[in-house]
Amino acid sequence: MQQKTLPTIIDVEASGFGAQSYPIEIGIVRYDGAKWCKLIRPFDSWMHWDKNAQALHGITRAMLHARGAEPVSVCNELNAFLGNTMVYSDGWVVDNPWLIKLFAAAQVEMTFTCRALEYILSEGQMNVWHEVKAQQLAQLDVKRHRASADALVIQQTYAQTMGL
Predict the structure, then answer these.
(1) Angstrom distance (rounded) from CA 81 to CA 103
(2) Is the full-model pTM beyond 0.90?
(3) What does the DSSP 8-state code read for residue 39?
């Protein structure tokens, strides 16, 4: 019997919710369980900041300037970690544009492709997704809304719903 591989999951936290927002943290759980997460120091031209987004993820501008990695370095690390693979996001409609914005501003070519998680979910998985995700949040005892924690919850929710 062939074992199904888990998808690589990416999650992006941002400075806000609109078109002027930009990525500030990226978290990944790869198909093999390897994890990667980085805060991103914004480019000087990236000025938008939404206090409501900050209240959600808990990341401050001061944290980004103190502990954030340079965007070019983040892009190169992402490419090295992911290679020429497919990654999936449950928030593709915002996560993919934020990734494109990051790589374009850094002038680095993205080697991986991001797709919507819905492409690989069965109807059965979709029917129970929110219920199982809530169980995973409780079971994994996730205390904060951050990219790496969100990616893990999404991947584990996928794993728990695989047979449906």
Answers:
(1) 15
(2) yes
(3) E
